[in-house]
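Case study 2.
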Amino acid sequence: MARRPRGLRPEEEDLWHRVARSATPLHPARPKPEHPLTPPAPKPGQPPKPDPAPLPVFRIGQSASPTPGGAAPSRAEGLAAAPVRMDRKAFVRLSRGKLAPEARIDLHGMTLAEAHPELIRFILGSHGAGRRLVLVITGKGRDGDGEGPLFPQRRGILRRQVPQWLNTPPLGGIVMQVAQAHRRHGGEGAFYVYLRRV
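Prediction:
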């Protein structure tokens, strides 16, 4: 671990200036080094940099200003706001739970490292078999174990990650639509995945 330089005491700085004034430069054509605490002078032909805008005053206990647009949308809101790329009538039936999935995979209880290859295998296999609608069950995520202080925890890592996996290679090219499942098929803990035709 490197030590931070402590800086010069006033008597050391005074001694340094006396020695520097009495020294003769070896290369008088070179520019003189500036004091380390003074800002560098602008190069000729360059406009000087404007001073940065001052930061607003913030006091402890003061609430921060809200971010534009409010909080980040939930996964369900994000999926609901996604454009519909499949047949609209079929999508309405799908969102009402009136279309039955042709196959399902249950990922809950798996780690990310276990779930990702299983999801890829399942989706590619379903697409190869000519299936159009499959159900991916992620679970809602579990609460913390109750030990230790109460810190806010994000639940459902699979529930957040699976839609991203479905929209990126190698699955993004064959997945047409991802939607949150109806209550009868798992609700918030599952996703409908509508696949493109083979």
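The chain has a mean pLDDT of 81.
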